[in-house]
Here is the input.
Amino acid sequence: MNLALLYLIAATLRGPADVATLTYASDAVVHARVLHSKSAWGAGGPASGVIYTRVTLAPIEWFKGRARPEVIVRVPGGAVGEIDQTVQGVAKFSENEEVVVFLRQLAPSLFGVERWALGKFSVSKGAASRDRSGVSCVGCRANEEDALSLSDLRSRVRGSLRQ
Here is the structure.
């Protein structure tokens, strides 16, 4: 008899992850559309054992940060050849997806998503929502909203900048 075990492991991320805290912790906040993504080995090639995916975003509107014509976001994990590396808790992006992302600068033209999946909202028909599935949060607050209108999210980011 063959038994297959399936372990569902949640990534533990550190909060809080309310809009004001994310805005304060981020170098940039951008409303954008995902153009494409490409996975590759980290520095050191296959010997590094680490795969990263670079996601190219076309900004629609900048809520915080210096406007640029294009934004490159690096997230851990991805697929290179026959090797697929999955990292729990990272923000996931789909081609043509509309998003609002809270970004921290990693290099002059490279960003990471602040607090991984907690720093990405998907936008559809004027509504912005974030996906906490597979995420456990230490320090998150009960009143952190995961679904807002895009205009409310924009207002909260801009309001946080004025404080």
Notes: Residues 11-162 form a domain with the OB fold (Dihydrolipoamide Acetyltransferase, E2P) fold (CATH 2.40.50.120). Helices lie at 19-25, 150-162. The chain has one domain: 11-162. Residues 150-162 form the longest helix (13 residues).
